[in-house]
Specification:
The protein contains eleven helices and no strands. It is an all-alpha fold and 212 residues long. The protein has two domains: 2-132, no CATH class; 170-209.
């Protein structure tokens, strides 16, 4: 497959084998790029402003935008968004929309299809895929759903078996880690070095929710 705007970041993310979800890495990269995008030159593009005015931002991403310390661009975005809210109850009473979420999810949807295309057509990428030992639950589910749409009937079971294997290994490892963490509160094991198991709860939460 010729390298494209989609395949390059996918390959870069799957080249890393650090025990973290490669799709979460893509998600974080997309989110950061979008935050910079809306506070940069794109904020002066009429089509972008129409979308930000209508959708606004969720609490998570308005906080992230605030942390960028670009108050004037953000003030301009919020000013016209507030004017849009004042126009109708349709916008004022719907607090579930977010421009950043909408844009990131749109790109992620395309990434799922491209991940599956690369898995199906490129042996080099399949080796990268096989080297990954961890995928978070949300992205495991998303790829499972995408497989039904993008893979042939004979291919999908093979891919889903690989997903189950990765998820099963992650669940087993995290369950054992949680058991060791819980055991440390028993006085009989006081002073035991927990090592990496100190992060058992955080790791379990990241698996269930995806690493933000």
């Amino acid at each position: 497959m010729k390298e494209t705007i989609y395949s390059i970041p996918i390959n870069e993310s799957f080249e890393i084998t650090d025990g973290q979800c490669p799709v979460c890495r893509l998600h974080r990269r997309l989110t950061e790029d979008t935050l910079e995008y809306v506070l940069g030159a794109a904020m002066m593009e009429p089509d972008v402003r129409q979308r930000t005015n209508a959708l606004g931002f969720c609490p998570e991403h308005i906080t992230a935008l605030m942390q960028k310390q670009k108050r004037l661009p953000l003030a301009l975005l919020l000013e016209t968004h507030f004017k849009k809210l004042a126009e109708s109850e349709k916008h004022l009473f719907n607090a579930s929309t977010c421009y950043v979420c909408d844009r990131v999810n749109g790109f992620l949807s395309a990434y799922y299809g491209n991940i599956l295309y690369l898995w199906r057509t490129e042996e080099a990428f399949r080796r990268k895929w096989n080297a990954q030992d961890y995928l978070c639950r949300p992205h495991t589910a998303a790829l499972a759903n995408a497989a039904k749409e993008h893979l042939a009937k004979k291919e999908a079971p093979v891919f889903l078996a690989s997903l189950r294997e990765k998820a099963g290994a992650s669940l087993k490892s995290m369950t054992e880690s949680l058991e060791i963490f819980i055991r440390s509160f028993d006085h009989r094991f006081a002073g035991e070095d927990l090592g990496e198991h100190k992060q058992a709860v955080q790791n379990a939460a990241a698996f269930l929710c995806g690493a933000k």
